[in-house]
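Methods — Computational structure assignment.
A single polypeptide chain was analysed. Its primary sequence is given first, followed by the predicted tertiary structure written as structure tokens.
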Amino acid sequence: MSPAEVDDPLGRLAATRLGAVLSEPAQRREMLYAALTEHPDPVLRELGQQLRDGRIRPGELGSVDAYRSVLQRGLDAMTSFDIERVAAAAEAAEDRHQPGRDEPSASGAANDRQSRR
């Protein structure tokens, strides 16, 4: 990893498949709304459903007390947000999901069978 990559965690994130998805506004919204609809917090699940179904626009979320409260908690949590940790986690997740990764090669499997004989 070059020094420039270490100094630019957002650039590293942008170079991943996830970064490509996040760079497209429609895909980013779809991904966010889907994540919200599956959230363990019932208020965030409802909020996600409302957004996904077009019953509320993002700019209107502050007009609902329950939504405003849960969003404020999220904003408060952002004060300890570590973008470098997120970029490293995204990179690690992408590495784990590479096709063929962690699968033994055909020759490796054959060698394993022979060594057990």
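Note: The chain has eight helices and no strands.
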